[in-house]
Structures are given as structure tokens and as C-alpha cells.
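sanity check both lines:
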Amino acid sequence: MRLKVLPALKNKTVEFRCVCNRQVSSSQTNTAQTKFRFDCFASKESRWQWLHKEEEEFHGVSDVRSYVMPVTPACVDDYIEVAITWMSLMGVL
């Protein structure tokens, strides 16, 4: 999905969410949510890039942690591309 930052979003934080229900068993469904946050600045304004240590363990107990930037800076007229996986590893939507 490709999004363009419009002038009306200047100096605002925008949040984009994807929510899906995952069938765990015939009687149980889990809801998963992924969200992306963007701080929107004026066109061609300088931005900070920083990293945040994520403490969630997605693949079981491990000493390895992923690093994410929870709020991504973007400027007016920038394009933001968000990759969304529509298919699970089981091959179903």
C-alpha cells in the first residue's frame, strides 16, 4: 500500500492500523493488530531518525530482540509504503 502525506497532515501524528482475526482452532479466534505511526512535518524539513529497543518476544524466549522505530518521521509530499501480508504460512487468507 502506498500513501502520500498531504499538507493537511502537517504537524500531526497519523496512525495506520491493520486488524485481523486468526482462527486458532475450530472454537477459538485470536485478534492480531499491527499499527504504524507517523509524525508529519512540513515539506523538506529535517527529521530525526532513532531506534527503540522492543521488549516483546515474538518467537519464544530468546536473548535476541528486534529493534523498531515506533514513530516514523515523514514530510509533506513524501510517499510511505506499507507492506501488508494477506496470506498466512498455511496458505489461506
In short: The mean pLDDT is 78. The CA atoms of residues 9 and 40 lie 6 Å apart. The chain has one domain: 2-81.
